[in-house]
Structures are given as structure tokens and as C-alpha cells.
Amino acid sequence: MRIRSTALAAVAALAVSAWIPATAARAEEAATRPGDLVSSAPSAFHPLPGQPTNTKAWKIHYRSTTADGAPNTVSGTVVVPQDGRTGPRPLITYAVGTVGMGDSCAPSNNLPYGTAMEANLIQQLTLRGWAVVVTDYEGLGTPGVHTYTVGPSAGHAVLDAARAAQRLPEAGLSVSGPVGIMGYSQGGQASSWAAELQGSYAPELQVKGTATGGVPGDLLEVAEFNNGSYGSGLIFMAAAGQDAAFPELRLDSYLNPAGKLLVAGMKENCVAIDSIAGSFKRISDLTTRDPLAQPDWQARLNQSRLGRTAPAAPVYQYHALADELIPYGVGRRLRSDWCAKGANVEFDTIWVGEHVSGVITHSLAAGNWLADRFAGRATHANC
């Protein structure tokens, strides 16, 4: 009898273990549209460890699109204030700045524990009564290498996060509710790409405006600016991200042993370690030849260049004059390109401060600008 019971238990266990991945696979197969939910589970939102917030949160996996148009699955976090509000609640689809390339760096893995770097800025939005969805981007917290700095992929992830949040029944958000897009630094690239893509990729979203800052609008110029400086680690992270999206670039074939060691470590760690390990390196220190001088690399990097399409909704763009990582001129050129195409752009110079401080000092101004858009107030474009 014991042998029979043991055998039956083993068969049952095998059946259950087979059913779980089969169920997950069926859920993913059923989610066919960009923004469709693959899975959701209760999570939590804490700006600091243990700090309470009057919110509910869910970790989600949702369908999105790679830079080359293939379907993929991205993770993220939906946060909704529990304030009794009735009527359509504004939703911010929030793009974080650089956190690193390792899966442990993903916002969804840190927001529940109060260890996410921009959680206090996100709390400023939830305190206004707005829901917030934070994408993890492609390959950050999901299988594969994070496609860091690949603009079209990031833009898709930001827009599809908004769709997914509106399709999450527990969140109680209207699919016709007002949407704002927000991000700085890497998040500035992602939010700007979302702004450019929204009119064609997600026209049903009721986007009222995009607040975007410290935008690396031209990756080749940003790489040239940082080569050999303390921001040079970002060049190698970006190269690894581009190579993850476009394997035909064959980054590994350009790296010397030191370069291979550095990039392998970057794929497993977060920004604090990656930026220190890569600082004050020149491309020539870690390569046998410069990949950024090659036509195929230049073509792919230019694929992430911003400014070719006017955002359909108004934009608030801000940039620090003394930005030591993303040249101020890159931000000004993006503003000029958008303005030349008829976009509604309000540009704001951060006169005091540098790159990292800019996201903090201008968070209130960016939030106020979005509040004006939700209220239907007139814009103040300064093209």
C-alpha cells in the first residue's frame, strides 16, 4: 500500500508540475496584442524600506514589441492609490533612469522593498492621486540580456505598460482614462521614444503629455562625449544592450580580454558597480578595434536617434546646462528637431546642477506640468 501511495503521489506531483508551466504557456499564448497581460500578482510599493503608502501594487508581465517588431514579454509594476477616488484616474507610465543590466536591478524587484532609486519620485505622483505603471524594459527582470539604450524597444515597453495597467481588472483604471508619460536619463530616452511612437503604435491611449529630461537623443554623440571620462561605463553598457537587441553586431568579436570581462560583469550587476568598473576607460582600452566606427554599428545606433517624428501630444523637456553625462547640446538639438516638425514643446534649462540632480530638482515642475495637461489647461510652448 505504501509503495502504491508513493507512486500515486509521484504521479500527482508530476501532473501538477507539468500543469503549472503549461498553464503559464497557455496564458502567454492567449496574450497576443501588445499590452495584453500575461500574468499578474500582488506586490507592494515602498519608497523606503518599510515606509507605508496608501497604495496597492501588482507585478505584471505583459506583451510588447522588440525594436525589430517581434513580440516579446516585459515585466513591470502597477501602483494605484487607495484614496476612494471616483471617475477616471490619471495614469503615469513611468520610465526609470539607468539601474543596471542585471535582473536584480529591475524596478519590480526593488519597489516592494523600498530599494528602488526613483521610488520617492514615483511617490510624488501617487500622492497626487495618480496611478503609476513602471516598466522594467526588455530583458531586465525577464529572460535575456537587457536591451539598454535601444530606443524603439524601450518606447514600446513604456506604451504597452500603460495598456497593460488599463487592462488589469484589479487596478480599476479606465481604458479611456488620461495618460501621462514621464522619464529621465535612460527614462528620458524611453519616454521620448514613447512620445514619438504613440501616434502610430498606441493611438488609442489618451496621452495628454510627456515630461522628459536629460535625454540621450543621439547615442553616437553621447558615446564620443563620455569616452575616457567617469561616465565611460555607460558606453560599454549601451554596447552590450545594442548587441543584445541585434546579435549580428557581434560585440564580443571587438572586445579584448579585459573588455570581455568588463561587459560580462556588467550584464550581471547594477549601475553603481557597472559605472565604477567602467569609469575612465577609453573604447581603445577594451577593444581590438572600435565597433562604433563600423557602418553596421552606426546604423543601429542611429536607429535609436530621436527627433525624426513629432510627438502627437505636448512635451515638457528639461536638461541641465552643466550635464556631465548627456551634453546639453544634445537636448537642445532634440528640442529643435521636434519644433521644426511642428511639435508642441516647452523646453526648460536647469541652470544649477548636473545630470543626477536634475531629475530630483525638476520632479515637481514636471509633475505640475502633467497636472496642467490633465486639467486641460493651455500649454506654453517656447519653440
Labels describing this entry:
alpha/beta, 17% strand, disordered N terminus, 41% helix, 14 helices, 383 residues, globular
Describe the structure.
- The protein has about 375 residues and is α/β, with parallel strands linked by helices.
- About 40% of the residues lie in helices and about 15% in strands.
- The chain contains 14 helices and nine strands.
- The protein has helices at about 1-30, 105-110, 120-125, 150-165, 185-200, 220-225, 235-245, 255-265, 270-280, 285, 295-305, 330-340, 355-360, 365-375, and strands spanning about 35-45, 55-65, 70-80, 90-95, 130-135, 180-185, 205-215, 315-320, 345-350.
- A nine-stranded mixed beta sheet has the order 1-2-3-5-4-6-7-8-9, sandwiched between helices.
- The radius of gyration is 21 Å and the shape is globular.
The share of residues in helices is 40-55%
Number of strands: 9
The topology string of helices and strands comes to HEEEEHHEHEHEHHHHHHEHEHH
The residue ranges in which pLDDT falls below 50 over 5 or more consecutive positions are: 1-24
The major sheet is characterized as: 9 strands, mixed
Distance, first to last CA: 83 Å
Mean pLDDT: 92
Strand content: 15-25%
- By secondary-structure content and strand pairing, the structural class works out as alpha/beta
- The helix tally amounts to 14
Largest beta sheet: strand ordering: 1-2-3-5-4-6-7-8-9
Coarse shape: globular
> What would you report as the Rg, rounded to the nearest angstrom?
21 Å
